[in-house]
Amino acid sequence: MSISKPTNLPRGAWDSHVHVVDEEDFPFAQDHAFRPKKASLEDLLKFEEQLGTDHVCLVAVSVYGTDNNLLLQSLRHLKGKGRAVVSIDPETISDQDLDEMQALGVRGIRINLKSTSQNKSKEELLTTLRSYVQRIHRLKWAIQLHIGLADIEKIASEVPKLGVPVVIDHLATPNETLAPRLQPGYTEFMDLLSRKQVWVKLSGIYRFSKLPELDAYVREILRIAPTQVVWASDWPHTGGVAANPQGDRKAVQDYRKFDVPAFIAQCKEWCGEDEALIQKIFVDNPRRLWQYEGED
Prior knowledge:
This is Amidohydrolase-related domain-containing protein. By secondary structure, this protein is an alpha/beta fold. Helices cover 33% and strands 14% of the residues.
């Protein structure tokens, strides 16, 4: 996309949730549910340069399963300026593999519970979380959860006991048919945020574009947890399984259209144009979360 107006982001700004896709050189997993078109690291860096960010956190996209080779190659090209969140099999990955990822800039693992948590009991979800924590606890990596707001209710009691940072994707993806404050999981989510026991990504609002009281929801999150929010574009905006209802895995899927500069302007408005808060969500918070100690 072209950037039609300057975003005036602070120096050292991060985009904390982006993907890279290259099926030609890095084939998708056999059971991939959709086929996104190419979105290369070069494309991403051009986008970020126009946007005015200095750092990115690459996040594993589901079509690759637990194959992180494209992410790791991308980290090598970023030469220490980026971070990544990978997808792993806790039963098969070795400590040596984890250590090598750590050296390249991996600082977290992603668990996609959004499409599976409804079929799992509370104990099954907690068992899943614990199995991952056992593998990454020594590295102090984050566990990034793609989970619905309602399902936070199931895991809230366990989160403070995990001993690693917990990051919730896309404002916890509330159900867009009802104001968040009226949904299951809202109270638990806000309590975790207020106690600094989770982080949340201010991203992906097009996933719940009809959500009532979105402004109030975001402003409340920023009010109670200004140190726990990180901004992200969610580039290149995959449609995912929802955009592939017929299950045709051969058809190449285009990306959603999303005005990122307008989203940044909206985020600044949600911050009340408070420069200190803007600095937190774009720079200071991601530096802490992703364990980045560079000069900018």
